[in-house]
Amino acid sequence: MNESEFNAAPEEIVSDDLREQMDLNDAGASGTTTNSGQSWFHEHWGIFLTILIFGVFSLDFITGDLWFDELVTLNDFARKDRLREVLTWYPVANNHILYTCILWGWLRVIDFSFSELPLRFPCLIFAVSTLWVLYSGARRIFNRDMAVLLAFGFAVSPVFHAFFYQLRGYSLTILLAALATTGCFAYLQDQRRSALLKLWAGMALLPAVIPVNLLLNFSLLSFLLLSLRRRRAIPEHRNVLVLTGLFSIAGMLIYLPIAGQFIRTISSTRGWESGWLTSGNLGLAFFAHGCLPILAITFLASRQRGDRTIPTTPALSLPLFALCCLVPILLCLLFFTPFPRSFLVYLVPVTFCSFHFYDTTMRIQSPLYKIIVLVVTVNGAFWFHTVERSTQNALFDGKFPQDLIHQYYSRNQDVYRAANDIAQNSTVPDDSIVFINFHLYPTLRHYWVQANLNAAGVECLVGGTTVPLQRDRTVYRSLRRFIIAYNEAQAIDDYKKTFGEPVELRQIGVRSAINLYQVVDPGGQDGG
Fold first, then answer.
1. Are 186 and 192 in contact (CB under 8 A)?
2. What is the per-residue burial (b if ≥16 Cβ within 10 Å, else e) of 472-487?
3. DSSP state of 234
4. Residue 129 has pLDDT above 90, yes or no
5. CA–CA dist 52, 46 (Å, integer)
6. How much is the pTM?
7. Looking at the predicted structure, is the pLDDT value of residue 120 above 60?
8. Do 480 and 389 touch, CB atoms closer than 8 A?
9. Pick the residue with more confidence: 358 or 309?
10. Which 3 state secondary structure label does DSSP give 149?
């Protein structure tokens, strides 16, 4: 693209092929048809099939056990009596305030049902909305078939599935990121007011969910500024840039009433061991998500075309956008070591950047299109299978992996099944104490109470000052003691760290992948 093309008005630099496709999409979006025999549904069948595929894949995730952080969100924040308490209570960063407010209202709609599916239903709505926003936005930037491909990449992504369902702000974050990103691209493409509304709404709400989402706002503002500068169009867009800057930080106003709590919590929040580990996990996650495979295939295809390399879209520069995303990520990793999930807000932008070598003439009938669909599907299936197997192996080794790829709680119902089997078969006497590892303690206590068992009978091993023992240490030797754990050696080690004495364990069968052990004191006597 030469300089004159860059400086042209947006409507002058859109190719005839792309303009024709945009006109077709406009007709579909308004509910009209291109001919008497073509229905609105027929026009958008690809995205509906994609949503159906996503729904099938999502069932195992939304019905899994509620895990540690989800129960913190639910019990410590969303179950507050008044909404004002949600807005003014920020002891830990788990309170993704905007999402928690939505969950607070949703609990009252479902009359405080604590079944997994009703609780996670808003997350499912956010995820489906994300697919639709990606499709409806991307079909104006690329074309309809490529927009379907972009949404399909999310529908079979192991990274997207691993986070969308959680009772935390990630599903809402990714939805708002899709809204802001497509709005920014659309404004640069055709300067519509509706595009600005999408951009501003997404940017204003993102930090209100998770403060670190400000990084994406910085990327989008930088991209907008640099793109307009390349066109020498900053003077006529100065007001838009100023308002965009204001909206990018507007979401932080929600933290002003709790500034003291907010600063203490953020300054004390720990991340990973090093930025190198975080960056490595990010790269692995983007590969598993399918971004790098798509980029590689389209790059090889563009090389085969020789001089006929076609830019992603005549009006936008995805390499510039990639740079605007990469810089804040690297700066953050250089000075901090946040958890990899802090960068989930970039899942949408990175996916867009993977379309850099996209051919504007590519349609669903194209062999290359079918190859990309096949690669994305196989890539997703491979990672789903590999991650599930390696996570299970880690659990039985006494580890609790948690990153953008492996999460010990995904699609896991082991604790629920163990608690219900104990309740139905009276495996554990009423006057007993059941111990469990810190990572699984909130989950067991939740399902223990749901099974009408005594909550005082569940305690945490290696809980420290966060979840201390409820009784004097000398009392426990007179009680029957049991431990629920995946790994016997880890259970013995946790008990020794907690009580300072070795024990032996006798395994008792339960109908769950997790094991139930009875504590045997030195000398061979059963605990209690």
1. yes
2. eeeebeebbbbbbbbb
3. T
4. yes
5. 10
6. 0.89
7. yes
8. no
9. 358
10. helix
